Amino acid sequence: MLAALLPGCGKSECKKYTEHFCKDAASPQCASAIEKVKDLSSNQCRIELNQLQIDEQSKRLEDELK
Q1: Could you tell me the pTM of the whole model?
Q2: Which of 20, 27, 29, 65 lies deepest, with the highest CB count within 10 Å?
Q3: Do 32 and 61 contact (CB within 8 A), yes or no?
């Protein structure tokens, strides 16, 4: 019940994770992401998505510092 009241909770976190990889629905990355979230809780999906965002931001910062 509480998860329904909090923004960003629930399966929407897993949906955000798969959307990150599924810009091309036929790509192997998309299929892999869809398969991966089947076994993850929404909290695990949120953690995975946050880690992706951290990695992307780190890469952008490294590129800017070159």
Answers
A1: 0.72
A2: 20
A3: no
